[in-house]
Design brief:
The complex is a heterodimer of chains A (265) and B (789).
Chain A lengths: L4 E3 L4 H7 L5 E4 L5 H6 L7 E4 L9 E4 L2 E5 L4 H6 L1 H6 L1 H8 L4 H4 L4 H7 L6 H7 L3 E4 L4 E3 H4 L14 E7 L3 E8 L6 E10 L2 E7 L7 E2 L1 H9 L24 H19 L1
Parallel strand pairs in A: 1-3, 2-3
Antiparallel strand pairs in A: 4-5, 5-8, 6-7, 6-8, 9-10, 10-11, 11-12
Chain B lengths: L15 H5 L15 E7 L5 E7 L1 H4 L4 E6 L35 E2 L5 E7 L2 H8 L3 E6 L6 H4 L14 E7 L4 H10 L2 E12 L8 E7 L4 E6 L4 H13 L6 E4 L15 H13 L3 E4 L2 H7 L3 E12 L5 E13 L26 E10 L13 H19 L3 H8 L8 E2 L5 E2 L4 H11 L5 H10 L3 E10 L7 H6 L8 E7 L5 E5 L8 H13 L6 E4 L17 H28 L6 E4 L2 E4 L5 E3 H9 L14 E6 L8 E11 L4 E12 L6 H21 L29 E4 L19 H18 L13 H12 L1
Parallel strand pairs in B: 1-12, 10-11, 14-15, 20-21, 27-28
Antiparallel strand pairs in B: 1-5, 2-4, 2-6, 3-5, 7-15, 8-13, 9-10, 9-12, 13-14, 16-17, 18-26, 19-20, 19-25, 22-23, 23-24, 26-27
Classes of the chains: A alpha+beta (265), B alpha+beta (789).
Chain lengths: 265, 789
């Protein structure tokens, strides 16, 4: 780790100010950033610790959606009675990220700001068509927020404050874990709304989380596993690494989607 | 009624009290006054020519004490190799120098180039970033099959990258060829035994200190064998006489082989501590461990097994490329040869065996022994090939094995591969394992799996290993540059309690408990009266340490010999006190008794008399009660057994789930059943880790792709079933006093072929005949897909 200054603002306003500093970096839960710092792969001048900002923590219901503060830890989302009642798939997803240590440090905002191509939360945000609220007063639709591996619509110094998750009729998340890291080798979030079906895939694509349009169309006609007969994901653009070829990942996208539909139905 | 103490009791591991309460004293827990910290700048390229190193900015950086490169190490030797293999033409292996810091060239990613010593680790790391390197990258040699074709050489001494080309048993070569030509059937299998990273929980650490007043060096280090390190480093690297060099291996958090070897970092901190006049600590972080701990396995092999029409084995021919990495680690050359070729008879009567092993230099981390070391590779070849043969011949895999077993009445059994098995009963462990695995119910379970869309498979593997390493005269003839005896001093203190000083080293095995049980049994005292001391060359007799499942068979035997001497002397003292003839004294339950009388004296009185010799046969024996023994075994020990694994495969995803795993082992006599079962559990976890999860992978340029736990998959509790382990089919070793064989490596040896056989059995209906490890979901799915097309 290189030396850095550390500040822990108590309010969002102070945090926004601190982020204006040269080479400032937000520390939301540190589950990616701290290991990166330890390996000397990042050298921020100032670490702005967001965990002291109470106004961006907690879960509430807002206009029929479940609003989760960006500073809310995975374990808190998993344990929330409201989340469990209204979007059990989101509760399940949060309860299976990493291990207990990760779930008790990592936050929703940290995960989304990082946008790791194998992270779980992006699948829920995109799959549910959630809205990302930021410190700049912006409300960014999920479809606009994710812009490729580790790339988002956030501007320099802009912080996520909360995420509003619409409540679906049915939803499920199926994760196939990478054997070493236990990140998603392929994870699929399927959500059925009155107006249609959304299918979001994480872990598989070199472009990061994406919506699988063919499956959405098929499931929109009939929300049943059989509707996916003959629908196959293409290996083009899929990740190939030690743990799976692009063909394997494309295949898993289909298998996990079917299993998610089964679990949701 | 199970025993509650002594031999055969499941005494609780006394060392766990400190390990589980944070009271262990590991090398990194030790801090010396005035201590500095060392950081090694390591190569980021696999192969390169060093055109220049500028350390001036680093040396001037804040907190820096000194910066060293190879040019500062004049007069310091290279890291020595402890075993010389002679090739098929009688020539010694190629043995290029392994410098402490890279000289002129770097040969693998992680090769140390410079060392920064500073007041803090952070200062050392900061300074290391200011070292300017001018390295001209050279083409890297990574794949062994390409390496032996020539082109780029890792070392100029070996232009074809071959360290040695070894044949065994050379005299059998023509007969094996002929048997294979004329056989009814020959089963051929090409397989890879992939490279593994040992991954002990505690990373390596070393502290060097020099006492100028006494001209004495001390090295604290994470070692499985402190005397071996003292010998190698003192004599071959630093020219420090043994009486001026103390090596301490305190509590060590796992080794699995990787902490046997003498490493450059140990020599460096010992040497540099004198140069800078302050103690120096180096602790590897996990990333550094991936790039600098000796790695394991890495064989590519072709096996041919010739059979008659009834499946009797006629001949076995193997051809192996064995990866040495960039330099020869301490015992690397003997692993694919004498710890591998000599086990190719397995549990079977195969009359003719021939193997050719080419050891290959590559631009990768050095490879050496890892739990099992050579024996897992031999077992995997045999047991995978026999399984394939059974399928090809239409013979039940258990029956084919049984048909070829060495029979109980054939022991001692001279194998065609030099070693003589002293005892065994392979049919007994096979029967036991098949019974415990409920093989009779397999068909019904397979049908039930099929109804769920899953594929069920059953895999069997036998294993035999040569443990209790080793008779010194034998290993000397085979190229070992050391003896492989073990030493023990047993000191009876004046009030009767006992301190045992053993050359064996415990880094998780539970010696402090097991050895105390042996002594308590022999002396009729409680285990709590016995203390076990190990790991410090200034306290223990010259011993060879712990590896190759040798501690109880060899180290325990040395303790037994010393205790026997103690009892003999104590009887003399007792006879004097009881005014009886020595031959009339019997010793049992801690009492010395004159036979046929009620006159007796207790252990404590005799012990005290030895140290307060007022009434004492001083003209016949010396005061004191302390004995030292060196035990050199007459033969290896040969643990053996049968493992049965049942799996369920999800054809949609390639996920393998282990449904059951049975291990029936013959370890001879067992001192502590609970510790033995724990050793088997650990071995199985590592073997299953190899079979399903672990794989050390380099890219073409020599960068380690699996360089952290994000990509190197370690087995976790959730990956493993509840093991069924049994050691009731015991045939005690015939040549050591305890009749013990060793249990540390068995699990890691027998489990990979059992598991792979089970998965291949499950997929046989899809036309799959082999999958290389690890059987990750992706690989299993690809194998199913490839077989379909």
């Amino acid at each position: 780790m290189y030396a850095f200054d550390y500040t822990r603002p108590a309010s969002l306003a102070e945090a926004i100010e601190a982020m204006r500093g040269d080479e400032a970096k937000a520390l939301a839960g540190g589950q990616t950033l701290i290991p990166t710092l330890k390996q000397r792969l990042a050298s921020p001048a100032t670490l702005v610790d967001l965990t002291g900002i109470t106004e961006i923590r907690g879960i509430c219901l807002k206009d029929g959606a479940v609003s989760v503060g960006a500073g809310t830890r995975h374990a808190e989302v998993a344990a929330s009675a409201d989340v469990r009642r209204l979007i059990p798939a989101l509760s399940h997803l949060a309860g299976h990220i990493g291990d207990p240590q990760v779930r008790n440090r990592g936050t929703l905002g940290g995960s989304l700001a990082n946008n790791d191509p194998s992270a779980c939360y992006p699948a829920a945000v995109l799959g549910l068509g959630a809205t990302v609220h930021t410190s700049a007063g912006r409300a960014i639709a999920a479809d606009d927020y994710f812009q490729g591996m580790f790339t988002t619509a956030l501007d320099e110094g802009e912080l996520i404050t909360s995420v509003d998750f619409p409540v679906p009729e049915k939803a499920a998340y199926m994760k196939f874990v990478q054997p070493a890291s236990r990140f998603a080798l392929t994870g699929v979030f399927v959500a059925k709304f009155a107006g249609g079906v959304r299918v979001a895939v994480t872990g598989a694509s070199e472009g990061g989380v994406f919506r699988w349009a063919e499956a959405e169309a098929a499931l929109g006609r009939s929300f049943a596993v059989g509707a996916l007969d003959g629908v196959e994901a293409s290996p083009d653009g899929m990740i190939g690494d030690l743990h799976g070829t692009p063909e394997y990942r494309a295949h898993l996208v289909g298998v996990m989607t079917r299993r998610a539909v089964e679990a949701a139905a | 009624m199970p025993k509650d103490h002594g031999i055969g009791a499941s005494s609780k591991r006394r060392e766990d009290v400190r390990f589980l309460t944070g009271k262990g004293q590991y090398t990194d827990d030790i801090n010396r006054p005035g201590q500095t910290y060392c950081y090694f700048l390591r190569s980021s390229v696999a192969h390169g020519k060093i055109n220049g190193i500028d350390t001036s900015a680093a040396a001037a950086a804040p907190g820096v004490v000194a910066v060293f490169t190879a040019k500062d190490l004049e007069g310091v030797g290279g890291v020595p190799c402890g075993w010389q293999v002679t090739d098929k033409d009688g020539n010694p292996m190629k043995e290029p120098k392994h410098p402490i810091l890279a000289e002129g060239k770097v040969r693998h990613v992680g090769d140390p180039i410079a060392a920064v010593v500073a007041d803090s680790l952070a200062a050392a790391r900061d300074a290391a970033e200011q070292i300017e390197l001018d390295i001209e990258e050279l083409p890297a040699v990574i794949d062994m099959r390409a390496a032996v074709k020539g082109g780029t050489a890792v070392h100029s001494e070996a232009p074809d990258n071959i360290c040695y080309d070894w044949e065994f048993v050379a005299e059998n070569k023509a007969a094996v060829d002929e048997a294979i030509r004329g056989a009814h059937h020959v089963t051929t299998l090409e397989l890879v035994n992939q490279r593994l990273v040992a991954n002990p929980m505690e990373p390596r650490c070393a502290i060097g200190e020099y006492d100028a007043g006494r001209d004495e060096h001390t090295l604290w280090t994470t070692s499985q064998n402190p005397h071996v390190i003292r010998l190698l480093m003192g004599a071959f690297v630093l020219s420090i006489p043994e009486h001026k060099l103390r090596v301490v291996a305190p509590d060590v958090g796992g080794g699995f082989g990787s902490k046997i070897y003498h490493y450059a970092e140990e020599a460096f901190v010992t040497w540099a501590a004198k140069k800078v006049g302050r103690p120096i600590k180096w602790t590897a972080d996990r990333s550094e461990a991936f790039l600098s701990d000796a790695q394991g396995r890495d064989h590519v092999t072709k096996v041919e097994l010739a059979m008659d029409k009834d499946g009797h084995f006629l001949a076995l021919r193997c051809s192996t490329l064995a990866n040495m990495g960039a330099y020869l680690s301490t015992f690397a050359p003997c692993i694919p040869t004498w710890l591998h070729g000599t086990l190719l008879a397995g549990n079977y009567r195969t009359p003719l065996v021939f193997t050719n092993v080419k050891a290959v230099f590559t631009n990768t981390v050095p490879v050496d022994a890892y739990r099992g070391a050579g024996r897992p590779e031999a077992t995997f070849q045999l047991e995978r090939t026999i399984d394939k043969a059974a399928r090809e011949m239409g013979i039940d895999p258990a029956e084919l094995r049984r048909r070829n077993f060495i029979q109980p009445d054939q022991f001692p059994y001279q194998t065609p591969v030099a070693v003589v098995y002293d005892t065994g009963n392979y049919g007994a462990t096979l029967d036991k394992a098949l019974e415990l695995a409920d093989v009779k119910g397999f068909a019904a379970r397979k049908a039930a799996s099929k109804a769920k869309g899953k594929l069920r498979g059953l895999g069997i593997a036998n294993y035999i290993e040569a443990c209790g390493i080793a008779p010194s005269s034998l290993v000397g003839a085979l190229g070992a540059r050391a003896g492989l005896y073990e030493a023990a001093t047993v000191r009876v203190n004046p009030t009767g309690n006992i301190s045992v000083f053993t050359g064996s080293h415990s880094h998780g095995q539970g010696h402090e408990t097991t050895f105390a049980q042996v002594v308590a049994e022999m002396l009729g005292c409680s285990e709590s009266q016995v203390d076990i001391v190990h790991g410090d060359t200034s306290r223990i007799p010259f011993g060879m340490g712990t590896y190759g499942s040798r501690s109880l068979a060899v180290g325990g035997s040395a303790i037994v010999k010393s205790v026997e001497k103690i009892i003999t002397k104590a009887k003399k003292i007792a006879a004097h006190l009881l005014e009886a003839s020595e031959s009339d004294i019997t010793f049992a339950n801690g009492q010395f008794t004159v036979s046929g009388t009620d006159r007796s004296i207790d252990w404590g009185t005799v012990a005290l008399t030895a140290y307060v010799p007022h009434k004492y046969p001083i003209s016949e024996i010396e005061p004191g009660l302390e004995e030292t023994s060196f035990y050199d075994p007459a033969n290896f020990t040969y643990p053996a057994g049968t493992y049965v694994c049942e799996v369920e495969v999800d054809p949609d995803t390639g996920v393998v789930e282990i449904q059951s795993f049975v291990a029936a082992d013959d370890f001879g006599n067992v001192v502590n059943p609970m510790i033995v079962e724990g050793q088997v559990h650990g071995g199985l976890a590592q073997g299953i880790g190899q079979a399903m999860l672990e794989g050390c992978t380099y890219d073409e340029s020599g960068q380690l792709l699996s360089a952290s736990y994000m990509d190197y998959a370690m087995p976790r509790a959730a990956d493993l079933p509840n093991f069924v382990v049994d050691h009731s089919c015991a045939t005690p070793c015939t040549h050591n006093p305890l009749g013990v064989k060793g249990c540390g490596e068995a699990g890691a040896i027998g489990s990979p072929p059992a598991l792979v056989n089970a998965v291949v059995d499950a997929l046989a209906g899809h036309g799959v005949t082999h999958i290389d490890m690890p059987l990750s979901p992706g690989r299993v799915w690809e194998a199913i897909r490839a077989a379909r097309h």
